[in-house]
Amino acid sequence: MNAVQRFIRSKVLLLTAAILIAAMCLSVLVQSQSQAALSRTVDENSRGLYDVLVQAKAPSGALLQPEIANGTGGISFEQLEGIRKLSGTAVAAPISLVSRVTQNLEAPRLDAMDYLGYNAGLAGTATADQAAGATAPAEWPAAESVLSDEAKKYRLTATAVSSDGVSEQTLFKSTAEGTLGKAKLVEERAAGGSSIRIAAPEGETGIKFPAPAGGSEHNLFNLSVSLPLAPEVTESVVAVDPAAERALLGTAGDFLAPLEKAPPADARDAGAIGRYFEGLFTNGIGLDELEEGPDFLGVKLKHWAPLMTQYQQAKRTGQLTADSQAIPLIVRSGTSLDLKYNVKIEEIDDSGKVVKDVGTASQSLGEDYLPFVSKDPFVLSWPGSTDHSSLLGAAGNFNQGLYTPAEWSTDFAAAPKYTDGEAAANGAVGKNAVPGEWVTINRLPEKSANGTPVDQTQREPVDERSYRENLETGEQKAAAPLAMVYGTFDPSAVAEAAGDVNKLPLGGYDPTPFTLVKDAEGKDVPAAELEPSLSATGLASQSAGAITDYYGLAAARGYKDNAAVIDAVRVRAEAPGSWKEAQPDVEKLAGEIRDMGLEATIVAGSAREDASIFVPGYSKDDAGKESPLGTVQQSWVRQNAADAVTGSLSGTNTTLLFLTLCGAALLTGASTVSYIRKRRSEAGTLRAMGWTQRRIRSWVLEEFGVGAVLLAVAGIVLSLVSWSLTTALVCVSVLVLYAGAAFFAAQQLRHRDVIDQEPQHDERLIPVDSPLTFANRQLGTNKFNTLALAVAVGVFGAAVGGLIALLIDIPRAAGASALSGLAAASVALPSILLALAGVVVGLVLTLVTGRFELNAKRQYLGILEAMGWNPDMLRQVRLFENALVGTVALPLGVLGALGIGLLLAPYAALWAGVAGLVAVLCWIPIATKVVQ
What we know:
932 residues; alpha+beta; 9-stranded mixed sheet; 41% helix
């Protein structure tokens, strides 16, 4: 017979080669799918809204701080134009931090429903035109009130509470008492006719909180009680180029369209614009204009009333000068500040004893709050009240808006600073926040609206820790600007457009939250998101209260010439495609920008990553002792995350493939060596026929050559299909191991003297009196096969340990970025399938090796059965045989697994040893059950 016929006849060689080829095909297929999933995941999540971040001075390290609008400037408009003129630039969008703006929320009030019904003398004119939304007189509901006809005495307790997301703080608590009752309409006769007025009930004293709060008064719909002044709220303002920002954001940036129509710098005189709107109000304005806002240079200014009233107030107080400019703003909708105003209402008797707990009215700043616009964010309703003011329609609801202009300041406005901390095993970098000065909030104004001094002792100021520094300003002192609201924006919609895994910092209007994860002692705590502070000087910040253009920045900070005030330029390259396809063009563009003397950080291929930040000096007690907050996490940007993730997980994939196939090849070799010893009788016959030892080895190697050819063909086909150098190298390694096993097996056919293995008179012979001693005797008699099987089981255990270690190490190897987690998840299932394939193939090959002595085992088990051994004892013989083989294999499996784990995945080496131990222990009952 020729070599092919002998190879097929042997069955064992054919079976082991078939198993190895099947393992190669399956493993390469799974590994290819895993690599494809990895590449697809990385490509889809590694290119954000822009490719290069340009700064005057880039921070060191691979982690990029999210607050890129930090107020430091350094980039001139000439340099910006130079960037835009580069051939590889598609979009170059600048952004800068302008300043902090402190806003007085006006006086809060408590409205108790005291609706008097329709009266022509009070509401007749307002309801004449139903087109404005007013309700026809006949449809007005009957009068109703939450107050009694007779005045009763009440105690109101007003409190304001703020929270940083970790603990609450009561900013003030103020109490006032007085009598309140239901109003009535009084008709008074006078010369020429009569008049109608609203009169308080007899005995009503009203309720008056300390100045600067007013008193209480009745109107057609409510009794309104003026409450203590709410704490001031501070916002930040950023500047952008509206056209470039829209190009960067796409449709998500359409809210900036009105800002593109803002007047040029020489047409923004605050006095002239204020007089224009004042004239609109004086000369009369149509109801349509009242609802939609008057047209100003092609933009409907819905929020023109606050501009007019703030202009009038600034003019009266002398804040407005000839140099004051109107600053166009797009303001944020809503707020994430946790500020709550509460009023507890109690009915009391003359002695002050509580007769009835009426309830508590509460109001928080929420989604309806608009910086620079909202006049009444804290209008609280008496329990049981209904608002009837809508009966007057749009004209009746007209609200002039905020009266007090905001105060602009560059103090404590810069981005926080951090120092490097320790790095974690997965590459995550720790940071330490650098604390700054203490900032005092919750102060009352020095004078009330009528100019009288305000008692400052009624409220205790509160200190908040600042983690920010002051910004530079222009050479001249900035004149007080006048806010001109052009529209609103939703920060959540912008954040959605910025993406998730590949989210890149846009600037101050897309803040990145902080989450507390450890307390000051380093103990884990339930995750709690930090809320921004009232002073806006802490670590946590909300979206910028407003967005303006660079003319607005110049007016707010006192710049006249084209100063280098741009903090950062976000550049999108012209190159299409994924981050990898665009990488050469992006690198070329970044190099050209660096040649201009600027720092260009390539962010294409980056991903967000949580940085752990220790926050010292967060609070202090009454004695002035400072205490840290603990450790918070914030999403930063990991540069080159795509390259790192692709490299590490591709390496893990390759190692899994190599370990799976090379482990299978080693087990095939062990099976082959064990099997070939059964062919010694054929070799002896051939030797008796005159064949030389060399010819006999060649005769056997020809059979192995057939298997090697099959493996080589399979390897070539797989390499061509996958078109992967990795697959080719692994297939070559498998072929080399198979060939090495073949040569070693052929050496076992050398002639040896046969030694009688059954001595009849040896005193050391172990008496066979139990299944254990018999199993030990049999294994000792066939030492070579026993050792071959033990080596095969040990290799199986080591391979399993290595595979498990690699699987456990995947999250660490991938890194700490969001892309790492996504990529690791994409390769998890293929990696598990690949490892399972390796385990199954290894187990099958060890079981094949164990069947080589099956006929001999059946013979001596039949003899034992004839001697009276029952089935349980025979099963014990098989179990003890496998257990003894496992005992020999155990050190090899555990130590081999530990060694592979230390070499490939040091952080999971202990788990590799445990997996190797479990694999060998599991092999024992499986082999006992299967090989019978």
